[in-house]
Every structure is written in C-alpha cells, then in structure tokens.
C-alpha cells in the first residue's frame, strides 16, 4: 500500500508531469498593465542576399491595442486596435493604406494576439505546441486554416514573462525574425501613447 501512495505523491510533485499550458501562458502575458520596449525586425527575402532590417519602439496594452513606432529606415507610427489599423500623419490618426503595407499589417495583427496573450484567438487559425516552462517557453504555431496555410509554414515564438522573439516562416520561403529588447512592464505611458491607446 505504501508504494502506490509514494508513487502518487511523487507524480503530484513532478514538474515535468505538470506541463505549462497555453491558458497559463495567456495569463502570464496578460498580467502586465502594459509592455514597452524596442524591436528589431529582420526580413529575409529569397531574392536578397542581406535581410531588410527595421528598428523602433512599441507599446502594448493588452486587450486595448498596440502602438508600433518604426524609427529606421524611416519614421512610421501605426496603431493597431480592434477597430482597425491606423497610421499617424503627424497631426491625426488616419486609416492605414494596407495595400502598401499588407505584409507588415498581417504580421502586426497576428502578433497583437500573441503579444497580448490571446492564445484563444491564435487557436482559431493555428495548432499550438507549447514547450518549456513559465520562465523559458517556446510556442510553435502550425497553420490549420486554408488562409494561414497559404501564407505560413510555421511560426515560432519564445519568451519568459513577455514575448522575446517571433519567427515567421512563409510559404514562399521568406522569413521574418523579430527580437524584442529593453522591455519594461507596467511603466507609465507617455502622453502620445495614452492618447493613441
């Protein structure tokens, strides 16, 4: 009788058997009031020998929106909320010309769900495979809808209490890698971000 009780106790306290779930990941990513930091995006195109690199700052307020400020190679500010994608023209927010930036727009919409911890939104379009622990996890997204299968072969995301890296592998062989750094959580938003979000 003692052996089965010991085996049950051992099982209950084994961290390997108590897997980190997508629901727990979602809760972890939704904990901060906001996430702010810098990003570097490298786009690897089959037709180019070197990646196209963009840099900038971002502000994410979970369930409210994302402010995406590309600073290099040129200045461009986008706001992504449930009511759509808007671009800052220096005075006002105007509807973004999504035909000119369709690739970037699709990516921003996609990882708005991810950065905000909306794994339920992602599960509608992808099969999710989560590995690791709350301190160091990797989430693989395999497309399951016809539309996503036309665009991506897979997406890999990794992080800890926030998302640190996203890699989008596209059907035609192109690849985008995004790295997030100098991240701060819960820091008061500046006036522009408060107005935007």
TrEMBL record:
Signal peptide positions (record): 1-19
Natural source organism: Neisseria dumasiana
Record key words, sorted: Signal
Superkingdom classification of source: Bacteria
SUPFAM superfamilies on file: Prokaryotic lipoproteins and lipoprotein localization factors
Protein name: Outer membrane lipoprotein carrier protein LolA
